Amino acid sequence: MNGAAVRAPSARSLRGLDALNFFLADVRDGLGPYLAIYLIAVRGPDQGWNEATTGLIMTIAGIAGLIAQTPAGALIDRTSRKRAVVIAGAIAVTASCLLLPFITNFYLVAATQSVAGIAGAIFPPALAAITLGVVGPKMFAKRIGRNEGFNHAGNAASAAIAGGTAYFFGPIVVFWLMAVLAFCSIGAMLMVPADAIDDDLARGLDHSTTETKSDADEEPSGFTALLKNKYLVLFAVLAALFHLSNAAMLTSVGQLLTKLSGKDNATSLIAICIVAAQLVMVPVAVFVGAKADAIGRKPIFLAAFGVLAVRGVLYTLSDNPFYLVGVQLLDGIGAGIYGALFPLVVADLTRGTGRFNVSQGAVATAQGLGAALSATLAGVIIVSAGYSTAFLALAAIAGAGFALYLFAMPETYGYEPGRGGATGGGATPLPAAAV
Which single residue of 37, 126, 347, 370 has CA 20 to 30 Å from 195? Predict the structure, then answer.
């Protein structure tokens, strides 16, 4: 990292990044959980919609988004029109969702939500790339933490607005909220001037590196880039383990709360869980961004795995609904850390290669596979052995991830891919003092 470019971004660009992460927070995930609410509560069985058909729609959209992860990263690496890609993605997601009230055919609904899932895959690598291109590698850690803080604040604000307005106007209000947020996110993106984004830095090329653009263009495959670096492969496994453990915890708690408190009360409690956890994530993400260089990535990531394991165990100690909601707040710590550190570790392991974003996509695909398997795993265990066993199993997966990270993963701050790491040759991370 010696000689890495030092950027001096304008105040307008930084404010644009703040606003973009805040307003895009809800748009990037499409309708999310509101899709099920709309299809079941508004459309209902009379129009052929129930838990099974709605779940199938969400699965199809999820698979489409998962398949798009790596190509989305490759697109962001190669294009110099990153702002246009983000704007097009926001329009595509919003248009796909706004069409929903006007269509009833299962296949058309599946198609629109698949388009939303594919377009949504653009946002994580695009936001990370634009941020890196604007602020440069030396300010990247702090800025990513700030991005995540605004993202979680945006999620909390939109969830609160949706919950409050839906009480008066019904679930349909979510569609108009998304349209407003998409319009605001486009304005925020235009606040960042195109010439403020360094496209070489945005793809992970340092101006000080000896690799040229043509060298970086020789290998477009995200999985090729992934497999060339053993630590990037290991991090993909760790990302999959984290989400294999984490993804099912909220849904399992929701099912347990429904069983304990009834559907109406459980809905309110889960809404409180989501908003409160997002608010916890804000200071956690900002802290991680500010301290990740000083403390190092590894100790903080170990804390995320540790909190996740403890959370799973704590769920088994009481069936009190308010206790369960309180434990769920720990999600704000684990997820807040993960969201802030994920792009930092990938950036560490790909610096100088020009494959930052395509590698993000490849690791995100592994992450998505873990998340997709999580609910199925938890569901099978709940049916066969009960909720406590399921939570303990998810906690054990987090514990395995903690051990693997502790003993096999190096500290990536100061990692130099060009010194052998990119070929899997065991590059040694530099001490912080040498960076």
Answer: 347
Residue 257 has pLDDT above 80, yes or no: no
| Token duo for residue 202 | 């945005």
Q: Is the dihedral of CA 77, 78, 82, 85 positive or negative?
A: negative
pLDDT in tens, 380-408: 888 888 889 999 999 999 999 999 999 99
Q: What HEC string does the chain produce?
A: CCCCCCCCCCHHHHHHHHHHHHHHHHHCCCCCHHHHHHHHHHHCHHHCCCHHHHHHHHHHHHHHHHHHHHHHHHHHHHCCCHHHHHHHHHHHHHHHHHCHHHCCCHHHHHHHHHHHHHHHCCHHHHHHHHHHHHHCHHHHHHHHHHHHHHHHHHHHHHHHHHHHHHHHHCCCHHHHHHHHHHHHHHHHHHCCCHHHCCHHHHCCCCCCCCCCHHHHHCCCCHHHHHHCCHHHHHHHHHHHHHHHHHHHHHHHHHHHHHHHHCHHHHHHHHHHHHHHHHHHHHHHHHHHHHHHHHHCHHHHHHHHHHHHHHHHHHCCCCCCHHHHHHHHCCHHHHHHHHHHHHHHHHHHHHCCCCCHHHHHHHHHHHHHHHHHHHHHHHHHHHHHHCHHHHHHHHHHHHHHHHHHHHHHCCCCCCCCHHHCHHHCCCCCCCCHHHC
- CA dihedral (244, 250, 251, 253) in degrees, to 10, reads 120
Sign (positive or negative) of CA dihedral 158, 63, 235, 344? negative
Calculate the CA 215 to chain-centre distance: 30
Q: Across residues 359-383, what is the average pLDDT?
A: 84
φ, ψ at 198 (rounded to 5°): -80, 110
How far is 5 from 134, CA to CA, in rounded Å? 11
Question: Does the reported pTM lie above 0.85?
Answer: no
Report how far residue 123's alpha carbon sits from residue 125's, in angstroms, rounded to the nearest whole number. 6
Q: Is the pLDDT of residue 167 over 70?
A: no
- What average pLDDT does this structure show over 232-242? 95
